[in-house]
Specification:
Helix content: 25-40%
Strand content: 15-25%
Number of strands: 3
Strand order of the largest sheet: 2-1-3
Radius of gyration: 16 Å
Order of helices and strands: EHEHEH
Largest sheet: 3 strands, antiparallel
């Protein structure tokens, strides 16, 4: 069994500024006008932490409950939706991942 836990975080619609900007760019710059909506989710893969530390991280580090929606393992996708992902190349520095690691170490120093 895998020790990796996966969460996806999405801003609630009222706070989804990045998704609205991306939708505007797709329509304006690329000319794709038949898009109904754009969603931006951040994926976190977490391993080698206890369940208690993971739970604390879910609602304090990865997501802020008042403005974010947290999905565990999978997120809902509509029938006519298209999904693609973007990630850093191997060796590229990921500020968000580094910050998440440091914050988890504040919760529990040895994890």
């Amino acid at each position: 069994m895998s020790n990796v836990k996966r969460v996806f975080v999405e801003k609630k619609p009222d706070f989804a500024v990045q998704a609205k900007d991306l939708e505007h760019e797709i329509k304006g710059y690329l000319g794709v006008l038949d898009i109904a909506s754009v969603r931006v989710l951040i994926r976190y893969d977490v391993e080698n932490v206890s369940d208690a530390t993971f739970e604390k991280a879910c609602n304090g580090i990865f997501a802020e409950p008042p403005v974010d929606i947290l999905y565990r393992e999978e997120f809902p996708v509509g029938d006519n939706s298209r999904v693609f992902s973007v990630e850093y190349l191997p060796g590229q520095f990921d500020q968000r991942a580094d910050s998440a690691v440091q914050c988890i170490q504040f919760i529990k120093e040895d994890e």
